[in-house]
Amino acid sequence: MGRREFGTVETLPSGRHRARYAIPGSRPKKWVNAPTTFSTKTAAKAWLNRQRTQIEDGVVRPQAVATRTSLGEYAEQWIKTRRSARGGPLRPTTAATYRKYLNKQLVPLAHLALPEVTRDVVRSWYADLPEKTATVNARAYAFLKSVCASAVDDELMPANPCTIRGAGQAQPKTKVTVASPAQVHALADAMPEHLRLAILLGAWCSLRNGEVLELRRSDVTPEAVRVERGVTFVDGSAIVGPPKTGAGVRMVAVPPHISDAITDHLNTWVNAGSDALLFPRHPGERTHMHTNTFGYFVREAVKRTDLPPTFRFHHLRHSGLTLAARTGATVAELQARAGHSTPHMALKYQHAASERDRALADALSKMMAITENAD
After folding, report:
1. In a domain, 162, yes or no
2. Are residues 240 and 322 in the same domain?
3. 330 and 251 both lie in a single domain
4. Which domain holds residue 128?
5. Which of 26, 160, 161, 223 is most buried, by CB atoms within 10 Å?
6. pLDDT tens digits, residue range 127-179?
7. Separation of alpha carbons 27 and 32, rounded Å
8. 216 is catalytic
9. DSSP 182-243
């Protein structure tokens, strides 16, 4: 007994022939049409036979070929249902960032049905992105790649079309500057007095700006800083939440040389009550300072120091961790202090310290050579 007939061939008014087949097991039936018509029935049946063989061999996913779900529709649903590493929904700022990519960088692709987003289409789209937004381009590409990977898992795409090597790796716009201890304190002195401590905490306790701006009286003592929350902003509204990973919740020991600054700040600038913000929008208020406003103050203060104009608050965190590595801190110690979930980032600070150590060793050799030549 031969195999059951697979698909159908229909003769069109033009005399050409259209081949199509129903996705096996689909209820109601979903049909897949051949990408072209055929001049003979024999050619149409040959296409059907090839499709049947490829489906049975797992080469073709008919559901992926048949879907008319657009990339934009699927990506929006992906954002809504995506879960973080901790099992919860995406953070509001992360979801907002992904939607910006979808509504800007990915607009040329958003209307296409998922099977129409092919390798050639993605390569052409990526090539047309403006070079001046290289970092955003890379992040938008990485987002697209993740969405397409899920679509492949859901059998809505035959394969992930994002195959450009290195396209999703964002390169920083500017080189991170490691500030010296003297430069850290010069920057702190250049800040408005009620924000001076924020600079010291960013450098010497390796805090992120969102962590600093959410600190409250009950979180800080002259001996330690407890990090349990951070603040982010979506459409101008402050959103307070836990760190991205469990490792971000931590207790950071305060270096003794800034303990007095903490005491002075608590006594001078912080409202009464355990939940009073250390750095509100204005002294005496109870609302958060926006990260953009805080960034403005930092940039203006940088202008009054010998730090490069590109220096930003997050460079303080990098500076503090690099200086800690130079004291001999282990990867595990750096990881715990920074709140990193993996050793990968902590290794960067140790590498920076090793480079500095090599520079010092070279300088010692040059000093010795000068001494020998003098003799």
Report:
1. no
2. yes
3. yes
4. 71-153
5. 161
6. 999 988 889 999 999 999 999 999 988 878 878 999 999 998 877 667 788 89
7. 14
8. no
9. HHHHHHHHHS-GGGHHHHHHHHHS---HHHHTT-BGGGB-SSEEEE--EEEEETTEEEEE--
**pLDDT (tens digit per residue) in 22-60:** 877 677 777 888 878 999 999 999 988 888 887 776 666
Model confidence at 116, in pLDDT bands (50, 70, 90)? Answer: confident
User: What is the band of 114 on the pLDDT scale with cuts at 50, 70, 90?
Assistant: confident
Whether 290 sits among the annotated catalytic residues: the reply is: no
Q: Based on the domain organization, do 128 and 191 belong to the same domain?
A: no
Q: Are residues 204 and 111 in the same domain?
A: no
Residue 226 is among the residues annotated as catalytic for this protein: no
Q: Are residues 195 and 277 in the same domain?
A: yes
Told to judge if 340 belongs to the known catalytic residues of this protein, a careful annotator would answer: yes
Q: Same domain, yes or no, for 338 and 241?
A: yes
Over 50: is that where the pLDDT of 236 sits? yes
Q: Round to whole Å and give the CA distance between 274 and 286.
A: 12
Which residue of the set 61, 185, 196, 208 is catalytic?
Answer: 208
217 tagged catalytic: no
Q: Which two tokens stand for residue 160?
A: 């992930």
The one catalytic residue in 18, 52, 314, 356 is 314
Residues 6+ apart with CB under 8 A from 202: 209, 212, 313, 316, 317, 320
Same domain, 59 and 81: no
Domain count, the chain: 3
